[in-house]
Specification:
This protein has about 80 residues and is mainly beta. The protein is about 5% helix and about 50% strand. It contains one helix and seven strands; from the N terminus they run E-E-E-E-H-E-E-E. The strands form two sheets. The chain has a five-stranded antiparallel β-sheet. A two-stranded antiparallel ribbon has the order 5-6. It is globular. The mean pLDDT is about 90.
Length: about 80
């Protein structure tokens, strides 16, 4: 998956919570591409967050298995 494959919609974080991806942003000084999203649960922190796209797309190790950090939720 590449940065351009990240489309708006619901994604599940590997820890189980869902987030709505609004789209991509680009740092005008560094060129870094980030994913802008919001939690789909109540929080006491800002409602819009971002993470660099490379990290958003990477796999993490959970119980000895590689899983995506964020996986698109299909209906």
């Amino acid at each position: 998956m590449t940065n351009t494959d990240i489309t708006p919609g619901v994604y599940r974080h590997y820890k189980g919570r869902n987030y709505f991806v609004l789209g991509l942003s680009k740092n005008t000084e560094t060129g870094e591409v980030c994913v802008v999203y919001r939690p789909l649960y109540d929080t006491d922190w800002p409602q819009l967050v971002h993470r660099n796209a490379q990290m958003f797309l990477e796999n993490v190790i959970v119980d000895g298995k590689q899983v995506p950090r964020f996986a698109r939720v299909t209906s």
